[in-house]
C-alpha cells in the first residue's frame, strides 16, 4: 500500500482530493504567499523538483512541491495541507529508502534552500535542515571542527540526525543526535518552536533518534562539534571465503578495542572486507590490525593504511561504500537493516544467509564506545548497547529484478537471520515491509514517542505508513 492509498483508506484525504481538490484558485493563493517557488504538475521545473535521490519513485506525482525559502513558507505549506486534508512530507537529502519524501498526491516541502552552515565561536555549528553532509564537513574542516556524522556526502543532515546518525568516529564521540543543542521545528499547528533540553524537552528528546517526519518539519539545527584531528584510516580485503571467520573474529575484536577505533565490514558473495578509522598513532593501529588478522586466521589479500585529515577519511569511505547506484548522482537500490545486539552464536550460519544471494551486499557499522554510555531512554535512539548495525542493500534496476525482486531478496536476508537479531532495525533505513516495524525501529521508546506525536500532531497532519502520528479520521476543509 502506497502512502496515498494509505491516507485515503484511513480517511486522511477526502475522495474529492484525488480528482482535483484543492481548487486551482487556492493553489494560486498559496503561490502568492510563498517566498520560494511552488511547482505544480505541468509547471516548468516540476519534473526535476519532485525527484528524490532514488530513481524508483520518479513516477510518483506530488500535488505540489514547495521550494521553501524561509520558515514562513514551511508554515504556509503545513497550514495549507492541514486545511485541505493533503499529506505532507519534508525533503532534505531525499534519501528515504521507501521514497516517503516524494509523497504521491500531497505536498513536498523541499528544504534545499535551507542550506546555511555557520560555525560560531566555541565550536557550535548552526545548520539549515537542507544542508548536506559533504558541504557541512568541508565548512567545518576549514574551521578546524568536526561533527560526528555519516560519510555519504549527499545525505541531508535532517534525516541523518533525526534518526540518530551513525558515522566513522561515533565510538569516540557518540551519535550525531548526541551533539544536538537545539532545533527549530514547525509543528502541525503551524507554530515555529525552538526546542532544547530546557525548552519543550519532550520534543527535543524525540527529535534525537525518533526518526524524520514524525513530529513536524525541522528547518534548522544547532550542534556541538569537536576539534578536528588526524585520522588513521585502513582497508583490509580478505578472500570472500573468509567472511565467516572475519565476522567471528570481528565480533570479539571490535568490542574490546579502544573508543578511538571504529570499523565497518562489507560482506557479500564476492567480498569480505574491513575498513575503519583510528584516532591514535599508526603504530598502535598496526598492533590492533595484526591482532585481528591473527584471529581471522587468513591473511588479507590487500591491506591499506594511511593517516589523513577527517575530511579526506570521510571521502574515502564515501568512495569505497560501493552501493548499487545509477548515473547522475542518483541511486537505484533499496535497503533494509537489523541491529546486532549480542555476539553471534554461529557467525558462519549468519554469513551463509547474508551471501546466499549474489546481488545482496551487507554493510556492518560498529557501535559501542561513547554510543553505549548514553542510556537507551535518555534519547529516542533505543539501541545504545548494540554491537553494530547491519544494512542490507540490493540494486533495483530492471535487470536485477526491479524493486519488487530486490525487496523479495532482502526480505529473505532480513527475516532469515533468526532470533539472534529479533525485531530490530535502524529507523534511518526504513523498510516498508519490515515486520513489526514500530517495535523494530523504536524499541523501548515506542510508547513515549507515540505520546509525543499525539501531543504535537493530534490530528495526524504528518501521518505516513511508518509514522508515529495517528492518521486523520476526519478533515475539516476551509478556505485558504
Describe this structure in words.
The protein is of the alpha+beta class and 480 residues long. Among the domains are: 3-113 and 444-456, Uridine Diphospho-n-acetylenolpyruvylglucosamine Reductase, domain 2; 117-227, Uridine Diphospho-n-acetylenolpyruvylglucosamine Reductase, domain 3; 229-322, Vanillyl-alcohol Oxidase, Chain A, domain 3, CATH 3.40.462. The protein is built from 15 helices and 18 strands. A hairpin with a 2-residue loop joins strand 13 and strand 14. Helix 9 (243-253) crosses helix 12 (347-355).
In short:
With 480 residues, the protein is an alpha+beta fold. The chain has helices spanning 3-10, 24-33, 46-49, 71-84, 133-142, 157-162, 170-173, 201-207, 243-253, 282-296, 310-320, 347-355, 402-414, 437-442, 446-456; strands at residues 38-39, 64-67, 88-91, 107-110, 117-119, 125-128, 145-146, 180-186, 192-196, 217-223, 226-227, 230-238, 261-268, 271-278, 302-309, 333-340, 360-366, 388-395.
In the predicted model, the low-confidence regions spanning at least 5 consecutive residues are 1-19, 474-480
Distance between the termini: 30 Å
Strand order of the largest sheet: 15-12-14-13-17-18-16
Query: Which superfamily, in CATH terms, is the homologous superfamily of the domain at 3-113 and 444-456?
Result: Uridine Diphospho-n-acetylenolpyruvylglucosamine Reductase, domain 2
Helix and strand content put the structural class at alpha+beta
Helical residue percent band: 25-40%
pLDDT averaged over residues: 92
- Helix tally equals 15
Overall number of strands: 18
Please report which band the strand proportion falls in: under 5%, 5-15%, 15-25%, 25-35%, 35-45% or over 45%.
Answer: 15-25%
The CATH top-level class label of the domain at 3-113 and 444-456: Alpha Beta
Question: How would you sum up the major sheet?
Answer: 7 strands, antiparallel
Any idea what the radius of gyration is?
22 Å
CATH topology of the domain at 3-113 and 444-456: Uridine Diphospho-n-acetylenolpyruvylglucosamine Reductase, domain 2
Amino acid at each position: 500500500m502506497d502512502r496515498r492509498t494509505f491516507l485515503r483508506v484511513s480517511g486522511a484525504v477526502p475522495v474529492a482530493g484525488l480528482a482535483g481538490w484543492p481548487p486551482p484558485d487556492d493553489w494560486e493563493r498559496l503561490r502568492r504567499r510563498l517566498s520560494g517557488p511552488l511547482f505544480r504538475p505541468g509547471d516548468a521545473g516540476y519534473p526535476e523538483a519532485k525527484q528524490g535521490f532514488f530513481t524508483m519513485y520518479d513516477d510518483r506525482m506530488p500535488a505540489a512541491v514547495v521550494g521553501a525559502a524561509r520558515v514562513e513558507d514551511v508554515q504556509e505549506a503545513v497550514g495549507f495541507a492541514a486545511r485541505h486534508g493533503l499529506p505532507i512530507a519534508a525533503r532534505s537529502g531525499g534519501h528515504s529508502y521507501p521514497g516517503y519524501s516524494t509523497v504521491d498526491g500531497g505536498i513536498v516541502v523541499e528544504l534545499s534552500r535551507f542550506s546555511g552552515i555557520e560555525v560560531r565561536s566555541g565550536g557550535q555549528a548552526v545548520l539549515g535542515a537542507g544542508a548536506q553532509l559533504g558541504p557541512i564537513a568541508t565548512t567545518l574542516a576549514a574551521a578546524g571542527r568536526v561533527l560526528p556524522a555519516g560519510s555519504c556526502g549527499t545525505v541531508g543532515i535532517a534525516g541523518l540526525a533525526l534518526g540518530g546518525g551513525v558515522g566513522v568516529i561515533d565510538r569516540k564521540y557518540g551519535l550525531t543526535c548526541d551533539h544536538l543543542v537545539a532545533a527549530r521545528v514547525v509543528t502541525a499547528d503551524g507554530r515555529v518552536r525552538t526546542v532544547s533540553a530546557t525548552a519543550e524537552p519532550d520534543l527535543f528528546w524525540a527529535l534525537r533518534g525518533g526518526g524524520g517526519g514524525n513530529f513536524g518539519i525541522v528547518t534548522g539545527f544547532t550542534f556541538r562539534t569537536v576539534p578536528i584531528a588526524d585520522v588513521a584510516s585502513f582497508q583490509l580485503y580478505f578472500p570472500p571465503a573468509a567472511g565467516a571467520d572475519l565476522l567471528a573474529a570481528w565480533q570479539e575484536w571490535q568490542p574490546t578495542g579502544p573508543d578511538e577505533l571504529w570499523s565497518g565490514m562489507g560482506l557479500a558473495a564476492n567480498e569480505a572486507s574491513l575498513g575503519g578509522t583510528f584516532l591514535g598513532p599508526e603504530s598502535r593501529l598496526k598492533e590492533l590490525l595484526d591482532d585481528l588478522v591473527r584471529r581471522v586466521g587468513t591473511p588479507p589479500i590487500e591491506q591499506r593504511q594511511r593517516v589523513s585529515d577527517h575530511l579526506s577519511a570521510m571521502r574515502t569511505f564515501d568512495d569505497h561504500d560501493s552501493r548499487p547506484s545509477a548515473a547522475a548522482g542518483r541511486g537505484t537500490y533499496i535497503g533494509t537493516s537489523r541491529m546486532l545486539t549480542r555476539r553471534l552464536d554461529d557467525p558462519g550460519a549468519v554469513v551463509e544467509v547474508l551471501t546466499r544471494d549474489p546481488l545482496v551486499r551487507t554493510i556492518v557499522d560498529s557501535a559501542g564506545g561513547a554510543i553505549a554510555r548514553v542510556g537507551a531512554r535518555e534519547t529516542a535512539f533505543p539501541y545504545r548497547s548494540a554491537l553494530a548495525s547491519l544494512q542490507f542493500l540490493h540494486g533495483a534496476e530492471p535487470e536485477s529484478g526491479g524493486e519488487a525482486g530486490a525487496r523479495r531478496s532482502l526480505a529473505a536476508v532480513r527475516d532469515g537471520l533468526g532470533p539472534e537479531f529479533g525485531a530490530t532495525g535502524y529507523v534511518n533505513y526504513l523498510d516498508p515491509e519490515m515486520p513489526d516495524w514500530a517495535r523494530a525501529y523504536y524499541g523501548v521508546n515506542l510508547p513515549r514517542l507515540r505520546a509525543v506525536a499525539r501531543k504535537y500532531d493530534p490530528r495526524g497532519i504528518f501521518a505516513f505508513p511508518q509514522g508515529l502520528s495517528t492518521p486523520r479520521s476526519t478533515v475539516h476543509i476551509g478556505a485558504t
